[in-house]
Amino acid sequence: MRFPVDLSLFDRTAHSPSFHSLQRSMPRHDLRLRDYCIPVNPYFPTRAMFAAFRAHMADALTYYPSPNEELSGRLARVLGLDPETLVMANGSTELITWVDHLFVRDGLATPVPTFGR
After folding, report:
1. How far is 55 from 91, CA to CA, in rounded Å?
2. Over the stretch 34-74, which tens digit does the pLDDT of each residue have?
């Protein structure tokens, strides 16, 4: 095999397949996939934050999550921001869609490359 990942995964999405989809498609588990995509941040979350996440994982997966309004309020307090200035979303694609629906009336020009919306 020339490539250690299933390249057909790229044909099934308008953007790119997820890191985890590509990793799972690898036939050998001793190979480690490296992601050089722009949004990858090897410095955050910190090891201490991951330890705290692990400590609370059972509760996070067992109980229904708080609503976005409460989560944004908590985040605003931690960051010292006004909660009215935060928008909670499930990623940049959802935020771009909101901007499109809420603010764009006639048209919008964006430089390429960018997300389709």
Report:
1. 25
2. 877 666 777 888 999 999 999 999 998 898 888 888 888 99
